Amino acid sequence: MIEQEFDAIVVGAGMSGNAAAYTMASQGLTVLQLERGEYPGSKNVQGAIMYADMLEQIIPDFRDDAPLERHLVEQRFWVMDDTSHTGMQYRSDDFNEAKPNRYTIIRAQFDKWFSRKVRQAGATVLCETTVTELVRSASGKVIGVRTDRAGGPIYADVVVLAEGVNGLLGTRAGLRKMPKPESVALAVKEMHFLPDEVIEQRFGLQGDEGCVIEAAGTISRSMAGLAFLYTNKESISLGIGCLVSDFAQTMESPYVLLDNFKNHPSIRPLIAGSEVKEYSAHLIPEGGYKAIPQLFGDGWVAVGDAAQLNNAIHREGSNLAMTSGRIAGEAIIEIKGRNQPMIRRNLALYKTMLDKSFVVKDLMKYKDMPALIHTNSRNFFMTYPQLMSQAAQNFMRVDGTPKIEKEKATTAAFIRARSRWGLISDVIRLALAWR
Amino acid sequence: MTMAVTKLRVEEKLYQNRYLVDPGRPHIKVRPHERPSANLLALTHICPAKCYELNDKGQVETTSDGCMECGTCRVLCEASGEIVWNYPRGGFGVLFKFG
Ligand SMILES: Cc1cc2nc3c(=O)[nH]c(=O)nc-3n(C[C@H](O)[C@H](O)[C@H](O)COP(=O)(O)OP(=O)(O)OC[C@H]3O[C@@H](n4cnc5c(N)ncnc54)[C@H](O)[C@@H]3O)c2cc1C
Ligand code: SF4
C-alpha cells in the first residue's frame, strides 16, 4: 500500500507518459508512474519512425545511449495497384548529418530506455499495475487512482492520463467519449528479421542509413488505409492500417491485407528469406483536430494518443505524444510554482501552451482531411491508384501506338472512371483540405 | 476452404508472440444473445487475432487468449453492451518483444 501523496500520478509509460514523468521528476516534483505492462513498451506498437527534435527538447543528449536503429536518408511514397507501384522517392546525403533528424526505433526497447531515464530523474515507476479507476472528491475533482494491486487508492494533486488511444479510464470517468470507429485506424504489423548486410544491399544503404516506404492503393481494398515498410538495423517492420469503420463495413480481415501486402510483387523481394518474430495490432487515432476531446479538467490532463493527438497525414504520433507530455509537465510545474491548486481553471494553461505548439497547429491545418478521405475512400484508395498505374504503363510501354492516342486513352480512362466534374471536385476538395 | 487457410495463418502469426494468460479470468466477454448485430458479426472477420467465432447456433463467442488488446472490438461493440471489455490484470496479456 502506498501511503505517500504525490505531486503527480502519470498513467502509462509510453511516449507521452514518459515525457511528462521525466519533465516533472527532473524539476523535483514527486511523480508516480503506473504501467500495466510487464515492462514499459510491452503493450506498445509503433512503425516506428521517431523524430529527433521532439526528444532532443526533453533529453538533449539522447543519442549517447538511446536504442536507435537507423537514421533515415531515403523516403519512398508508393501508390500501388495489384501488380505495380507508381512512386516518388527522396534521398539526400544531407540527412547524413551529425545530429540526424529521423530514426527508426523498436518501441519495446526504446520505451525501456526512456523509462530508465524517468527513474534516474527521480520518478517512482510501477509496472504490472493496471489503473482501474480515477478517484474523485465530493466536488468531482480527480484526486487519485485505484489500481488492481492490493491496497487502497493512491492520491496526487494531478493525474496525467497518458493511457494511449483506448483511453479506458478517461471514458469510464466520463471525461471524454470513446473513440468513434471512423476516427481510429486498426493497424497490424510484423517484424521481419534479416542480416544487416542484406538490408543494406536491398535498399542501397551504408552503415546506419535507413530507408522507409509509405504506400497506399488497392492494397487496402478501397478502405481508407496506409501501409508501411521501415528498415531497422537487423529487421524490417511492415504493416498496414485502415479505419475501423471501414473494416466493420467491408469485413476484410487485417491479416489477409497484411499477407497480400507482403506478397505484392514490389514488396516480396524486399523481405525474401526473412524470419518473422512478431505479429502485433494496435489502434491509431486518425480523427485529427475535430476528434480532440477535452484535454484538462479538475485534477487531470490528457496527453498523447489518449488525447487523440496524432497527425495521420504525416504519420506522426510519437512526437505529438512526447511534446504534449512535456508541455503538460511544464504547465503543471508552473502551476505548482505559483502555489495554485490543480483545478480546471489553472490547468487550462496546458491547453493554451499546446495551442501555440506545432501539435495543435499541424492538426488544425489538416482539420478537413479525415472527413474527406473517409467519404471518398473508394476513389482515393482504389480508382485513382488503378488509373495512375494504367497511365504510367501507357506512358512507358512502347508498342507502336502513336503517343497522341496514348494520351487520349489515359485522359478518357480518368474521365470514364470518375467523370470530368468528379475529377475537378476531388482536386479542389483535396487542395482545400491540404491548404 | 479459404477460411481454414486464413485461420491457420493467424494462428501461425500469433504463435510468434509472447503472452502471459491469466487463467480463468478472460478480459473480454460476449453478452449472451440470440442474433449478433452487424458489428458483432463483423468481429469474426476483423479481429486481428481472430478471437471471435460463430458457433453452430449463429451466435458469436470469444476466446481472448490470443488477444493483442488493440481495442477494435471495444470501439465497435462496447457501447451497445454486446461485449464487456477490460484490460487484463497488470502484467498479464500480450507482451510485445518489439512492438
Ligand atoms: C502501427 C503503428 C505505426 C505507427 N507509426 C508511427 C511512426 O512511425 N511515427 C510516429 O511518430 N508515430 C507512429 N505511430 C503512433 C504512435 O505509436 C503513438 O502516437 C504513440 O505511441 C502515442 O504515445 P502515447 O504515450 O500517447 O501512447 P502509448 O504509447 O500507447 O502508451 C500508453 C501506455 O499506457 C499504458 N496504459 C494504458 N492504460 C493503462 C492503465 N489503465 N493502467 C496502466 N497503464 C495503462 C499502456 O500499457 C501504454 O504503455 C504508430 C502507431 C501504430 C499503431
Ligand atoms: S482487442 Fe483487438 S485483438 Fe483483442 S479481441 Fe478485440 S479486436 Fe481482437
From TrEMBL, chain A:
The record's listing under Gene3D superfamilies reads: FAD/NAD(P)-binding domain
Question: Taking every annotated instance into account, which residue ranges of this chain make up the domain FixC-like C-terminal?
Answer: 369-435
Superkingdom, taxonomy of origin: Bacteria
Keyword presence, Nucleotide-binding: no
Listed Pfam families: ETF-QO_FixC_C, FAD_oxidored
Function of this protein?
Answer: Could be required for the formation of a functional nitrogenase Fe protein. Probably accepts electrons from FixA/FixB and reduces a quinone. Part of an electron transfer system.
Q: Which family does it belong to?
A: Belongs to the ETF-QO/FixC family.
What name appears for this protein in its UniProt entry? Protein FixC
Identify the species of origin: Mesorhizobium helmanticense
TrEMBL record, chain B:
Q: Which organism is it from?
A: Mesorhizobium sanjuanii
Q: Which InterPro entries match?
A: 4Fe4S_Fe_S_CS, ETF-QO/FixX_C, Fd_FixX
Q: Where, by residue number, does the polypeptide cross the bilayer?
A: none
Question: Which keywords does UniProt give here?
Answer: Electron transport, Iron, Iron-sulfur, Metal-binding, Nitrogen fixation, Transport
Similarity comment text for this entry: To ferredoxins from P.putida and C.tartarivorum, ferredoxin I from A.vinelandii, ferredoxin II from D.desulfuricans.
- Function according to Swiss-Prot or TrEMBL: Could be a 3Fe-4S cluster-containing protein.
Q: Please report the stretch or stretches of sequence annotated as the ETF-QO/FixX C-terminal domain.
A: 44-93
> Which superkingdom heads the taxonomic lineage of this protein's source?
Bacteria
Record protein name field:
Ferredoxin-like protein
- Single GO MF annotation: iron-sulfur cluster binding
Q: Which PROSITE patterns match?
A: 4FE4S_FER_1 (PS00198)
Gene3D superfamilies (alphabetical): 3.30.70.20
